[in-house]
Design a protein that fits this description.
This protein is mainly beta and 144 residues long. The chain has one domain: predicted glycosyltransferase like domains (Thrombin, subunit H, Beta Barrel), CATH 2.40.10. It contains one helix and six strands. It has a six-stranded antiparallel beta barrel. A hairpin with a 3-residue loop joins strand 5 and strand 6. The two termini are 21 Å apart. 22% of the residues are buried. This is PilZ domain-containing protein.
């Protein structure tokens, strides 16, 4: 489970993603044009929160889900999120991310995958930093 892995290896993960020379924003896999208007301008807030996700071609009731799993949200801004994933999502996919707010309260957000960067975590293996731009949400709900 990602939560257990994350707690056991948090220090190694933090060191791996903060190593000098790792510029995750320089790796682009999205087909979207690169321009200054696309760059984030709002401040990032460190989050480090386990969450679940579903990857699909497009949001909606007729979308086909191709990946389901757990991830860790490392930080977020008003319009984006940085995820640590054990599998790289396909760049053309939309990610439906569900975060837990406690006592059964959850939040749904839908993101467009903008870039993916592999990160080697010492003695653990390869993981992926995934930069996403928000396209929908937040939508708050209660799960019983």
């Amino acid at each position: 489970m990602v939560t257990d892995f994350f707690e056991q290896h948090r220090v190694r993960i933090e060191q791996a993603i903060r190593q000098p020379g790792l510029r995750h924003s320089s790796v682009r896999v999205s087909a979207a044009p690169k321009d200054e208007g696309e760059r984030r301008r709002e401040p990032r807030v460190e989050q480090w929160q386990p969450c679940s996700y579903e990857a699909s071609e497009s949001p909606g009731e007729f979308s086909s889900t191709t990946q389901v799993g757990e991830t860790v949200a490392l930080d977020h801004s008003q319009e984006g999120i940085l995820l640590l994933m054990d599998r790289a999502p396909i760049p053309t996919k939309m990610l439906e991310v569900h975060t837990s707010q406690g006592l059964g309260r959850k939040t749904l957000l839908v993101f467009d995958v903008r870039w993916v960067k592999p990160v080697q975590v010492p003695s653990v293996g390869e993981y992926f930093l995934v930069g996403c731009r928000r396209t929908f949400g937040p939508y708050h709900y209660v799960q019983f």
